[in-house]
Design a protein that fits this description.
With 96 residues, the protein is mainly β. The protein has a domain of 65 residues. Helices cover 9% and strands 53% of the residues. Strands 1-2-5-6-4-3 form a six-stranded mixed sheet. Strand 5 and strand 6 form a beta hairpin. It is globular. The mean pLDDT is 79.
């Protein structure tokens, strides 16, 4: 199952900022892909997801990490790749 997070996106026109909008970003965790151990292309209920060696390295060190899903162009239908990562680590307490 994917989770969604709100994010802010800045809109530009001709190099100038014209506004900010809230967007929903679909995120995918390791459990959502069956804790796969090999890079490759995997079929999920919403389409194909490509997982790289680097993605797996992050998941092996941070199993709770989630990746943003990015839709790619494909002649075969819904094709996705993993993008920015959220390590889901607790914030450091910097208070004195």
């Amino acid at each position: 199952m994917t989770a969604a997070q709100h994010a802010m996106a800045t809109i530009y026109r001709d190099g100038a900022v014209i506004g900010d909008v809230a967007i929903m970003v679909a995120r995918l965790g390791w459990e959502s892909v069956g804790n796969v151990q090999q890079p490759g292309r995997y079929m999920l209920r919403f389409g194909w997801v490509s997982i790289t060696v680097d993605d797996l390295a992050i998941w092996s060190e941070f199993p709770e990490a989630t990746f943003a899903l990015y839709e790619g162009a494909s002649e075969y239908g819904n094709e996705y790749r993993l993008g920015s990562v959220d390590l889901n680590r607790p914030a450091l307490d910097t208070a004195p």
